[in-house]
Each structure stands twice: as C-alpha cells, then as structure tokens.
Amino acid sequence: MLRARDGRRAWAARLAAGVALAMLLAAGGPAEPGLPDATARGRAQQPTFASLDVFADVGAQDLAGWQAELVLAAGLVVGIEGGDPAAFRDAPRYDPAALHGGRVILAALAQGQEFPSGRVRVARVHVMEQGGDGARWDVRNAVATNVRGERIRVDVQIRRRGDR
C-alpha cells in the first residue's frame, strides 16, 4: 500500500510541475530585469475599439440619399449603425462580406417625408484597432442626391467619436 501511495504522490508532483511549467511558458517566461512582464506585453497587443461618425454636408440642399466608400488603412470594421436624423436612423446598406476587408461601401436613402440639410451624421462605424496607431481611414467616391433625384455636392467626413 505504501508503494502505491508514493507512486500517486510522485505522479501528482510531476503533473503539478508540468502545469507550472506550461503556465510559465504561456505567460512569456520569467520576467527579465528591465523588461515589462508578460501581463504588460499582453495588454499592449490587445485590440481596442472606437466609433467613427460619418457626416454628410450638403449645405442648403435637402439630402435624400448618399453613398460613400470607406477605406481603412489600419483597423477592421466590426459594426455599422444609422445616423441621428430620423431620415437616416436605420443603418446604411453595405455588403457584410466587405467588413472583413479594408474597404466598405455605405449607402442610404432617406426614410419618411423629412429630408435633412446642412451637416448631418448619417452613420456610425465601429472599428477594431490593432496596436497603438489607431484606425486610419479615407473616404472616396462620395455622392448624394436631393429629393428630385438630382446629384448634389456632398462633403463626407469621418470623425472619431469624441473628437471635435
């Protein structure tokens, strides 16, 4: 009996040592003087999330529809919401498969009978950022239409939520 109990103890000790070694290796090894520990290294690599507001400025014209191509140089689109006025409260249309690439085309037609003018938040885009650089983006091929279906001048801008 004594022998079986000692064998189990030795097996348990080897298991505990193996688990401790595996945890040490998973944590990045022992900390070296002058280097950040594994926890700090892990935090630096974790993604962050940000919201980007999409604004369409059509001046005095009534905005009935818009389309713009959003190109992300760094970051990944993870969600898209509608805008502030009731006419653009629903999320704009887009190809869900495009979320996995660095480019998405957004488009929306105004809902209801009221058409906003001036500078209007027409969408909010949620992005996942890797590293500390933050998301970088560009707007291309922006077009808009008025209530008569005529093309109108539009300036589409994107601002990180919280920036002025």
Model description:
The protein is an alpha+beta fold and 164 residues long. The protein has helices at 2-26, 38-45; strands at residues 48-57, 65-74, 76-82, 103-109, 119-129, 136-145, 151-152, 155-160. The protein folds into two domains: 2-44, no CATH class; 47-160, Immunoglobulin-like (Sandwich). Helix content is 20%, strand content 38%. It has a four-stranded antiparallel sheet with strand order 3-5-1-8, with no helix packed on it.
Helices, strands, pairings?
Elements: H1 2-26, H2 38-45, E1 48-57, E2 65-74, E3 76-82, E4 103-109, E5 119-129, E6 136-145, E7 151-152, E8 155-160
Antiparallel strand pairs: 1-5, 1-8, 2-4, 2-6, 3-5, 6-7
Concise overview:
With 164 residues, this protein is an alpha+beta fold. It is built from 2 helices and 8 strands.
Q: Structural class of the helix and strand makeup?
A: alpha+beta
DSSP strand (E) fraction? 35-45%
| Number of H/I helices | 2
The number of strands is 8
Q: Report the sheet with the most strands, covering strand number, pairing sense and barrel closure.
A: 4 strands, antiparallel
Sequence of strands across the biggest β-sheet:
3-5-1-8
Essential attributes:
alpha+beta; Immunoglobulin-like; four-stranded antiparallel β-sheet; single chain; 164 residues; 2 domains
